[in-house]
Amino acid sequence: MRKTLAILLATATLITATAANADDWRYHHGPRPGYGGGGGDWVAPLVGGLIVGGILGGMAQQNQQQYYPQPQYYPQPQYYPQTFCRWVPMYDAWGNFAGRQRQCWQQ
């Protein structure tokens, strides 16, 4: 809310500074007989508006709390014991081949 208010105040300052010289726009295009010099009287309100806007913006920024991003916590890798498997032949009681069986162990 404060930042928005500061931006609105700075904008209003700039608009007021340029609106005060809006009727003098024709004087900025070079010297004309009877109208005086060739402009430059818009610089002071512009610089003043920028300075006031910077001051107001700095005050609004100073009053805000600093929010830092929360640290990211990633899950730790889980180490499981390695399992090794192999196929071994299986024999019946008479010594005949009966197929293969999977045999697994962990290390």
Characterization of the model:
- The protein is an alpha+beta fold.
- The protein contains two helices and two strands; from the N terminus they run ααββ.
- It has helices at 2-20, 43-62; strands spanning 83-91, 97-106.
- Strands 1-2 form a two-stranded antiparallel ribbon.
- It starts with a helix and ends with a strand.
Give the arrangement of secondary structure elements.
Layout (H helix, E strand, L loop, with lengths): L1 H19 L22 H20 L20 E9 L5 E10 L1
Antiparallel strand pairs: 1-2
Helix pairs in contact: 1-2
Structure, briefly:
With 107 residues, this protein is of the alpha+beta class. The chain has 2 helices and 2 strands; from the N terminus they run ααββ.
**Low-confidence region ranges:** none
> In angstroms, what separates the terminal alpha carbons?
63 Å
Biggest β-sheet: strands ordered side by side in the sheet: 1-2
Helix-strand makeup class: alpha+beta
Mean pLDDT: 76
Shape: rod-shaped
Give the helix level as a range of percent.
25-40%
**What is the strand content?**
15-25%
The total of beta strands comes to 2
Biggest pleated sheet = 2 strands, antiparallel
Oligomer: single chain
Please describe the structure with a list of short key phrases separated by commas or semicolons.
single chain, 107 residues, alpha+beta, two-stranded antiparallel ribbon, 2 strands, 18% strand
